[in-house]
């Protein structure tokens, strides 16, 4: 793709200023070429972890595409004077990929709790009957399980799109270790997307997500998240602190390789 991606740096993490349609257009080009391409879905929790976890920061910043999954990043980009255009939830991107794959490209669902990947795949198959399912398998994000998971993936080849749901940062580390060995064209860390696709966890209505209150809904349905969600006020304070100190979110100097 000739056009350069515009990317913004939010507290050390690269976030690409793409719309959902643009992200899928990039993906469509990647499906016609040789892979693998890595897609990450940063949000405020990712950024707070990447502040101290340098290995995680490195995977995020080296990805081919970093879509703005969290509304907090859109808000931060505005506060820091370098706005990105819209939030692109990883779940919407993953579903868009399934739609894009049509009956031409094969999709594998890796991760989530027992039976969830298979349930997610079959619900999506009912919605998109053309879906070419390469397989669905929970596996495990631990490095000791890599060989066994790779054997399952090997048997499922060809795989064009690999969706990995181990939550951050496990899914990104899994992809960094293994994506090159799977033969897929696109690998994406999709977080809780299979829980939503399978219907096990209700998703916040679109209007609430657009208003930036996805976190409140998730907290209501999964109250055990409260500790993790402490990252959100910490992130907001950090952003406001930067703004008060006169910092702005700079353009990222080295946009993704997806050009
Ligand atoms: N998960 C998993 N193994 C793990 C940790 C998480 O399969 O060791 C799955 C979990 O079941 C869920 C998904 O990873 O389906 C994403 O988890 P979470 O909702 O915490 O991620 P988020 O969307 O917040 O990034």
Account of the 3D structure:
It is a single chain. The protein is built from 13 helices and 8 strands. It has 259 residues and is an alpha/beta fold. The protein has a single domain (7-193, 205-228), classed as Rossmann fold. It starts with 6 loop residues before the first strand and ends in a 15-residue tail after the last helix. The strands form 2 sheets. It has a 6-stranded parallel sheet with strand order 4-3-8-7-5-6, with helices on both faces. The chain has a two-stranded antiparallel sheet with strand order 1-2. Strand 1 and strand 2 (13-16) form a beta hairpin. It has helices spanning 20-31, 44-50, 54-61, 71-79, 90-101, 116-127, 146-155, 170-182, 193-197, 206-210, 214-221, 226-229, 231-244, and strands at 7-10, 13-16, 37-40, 65-66, 106-111, 132-137, 161-165, 186-189. The chain binds uridine-5'-diphosphate (UDP). Residues 111-113, 116, 141, 165-168, 170, 191-192, 194-195 line the site of uridine-5'-diphosphate (UDP).
Q: How much is the radius of gyration in Å?
A: 17 Å
The end-to-end span amounts to 5 Å
Please identify the top-level CATH class.
Answer: Alpha Beta
Using the alpha-carbon principal axes, give the shape: globular
């Amino acid at each position: 793709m000739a056009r350069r991606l515009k990317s913004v740096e939010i507290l050390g993490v690269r976030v690409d200023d793409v719309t959902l349609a643009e992200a899928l257009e990039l993906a469509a080009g990647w499906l016609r070429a040789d892979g693998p391409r890595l897609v990450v879905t940063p949000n405020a929790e990712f950024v707070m972890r990447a502040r101290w976890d340098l290995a995680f920061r490195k995977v995020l910043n080296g990805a081919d595409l970093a879509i703005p999954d969290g509304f907090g990043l859109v808000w931060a980009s505005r506060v820091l004077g370098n706005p990105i255009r819209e939030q692109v939830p990883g779940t919407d991107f993953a579903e868009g990929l399934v739609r894009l794959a049509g009956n031409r490209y094969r999709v594998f669902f890796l991760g989530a709790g027992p039976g969830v990947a298979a349930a997610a795949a079959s619900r999506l198959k009912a919605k998109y009957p053309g879906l070419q399912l390469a397989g669905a398998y929970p596996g495990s994000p631990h490095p000791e399980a890599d060989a066994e998971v790779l054997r399952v993936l090997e048997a499922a080849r060809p795989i064009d799109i690999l969706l990995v749901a181990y939550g951050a940062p496990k899914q990104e580390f899994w992809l960094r270790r293994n994506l090159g060995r799977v033969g897929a064209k696109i690998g994406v860390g999709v977080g809780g997307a299979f829980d939503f696709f399978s219907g096990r966890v209700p998703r916040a209505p679109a209007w609430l997500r657009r208003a930036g209150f996805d976190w409140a809904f998730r907290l209501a349905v999964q109250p055990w998240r409260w500790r993790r969600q402490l990252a959100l006020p910490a992130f907001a304070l950090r952003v406001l602190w930067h703004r008060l100190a006169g910092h702005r979110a700079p353009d990222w100097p080295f946009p993704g390789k997806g050009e």
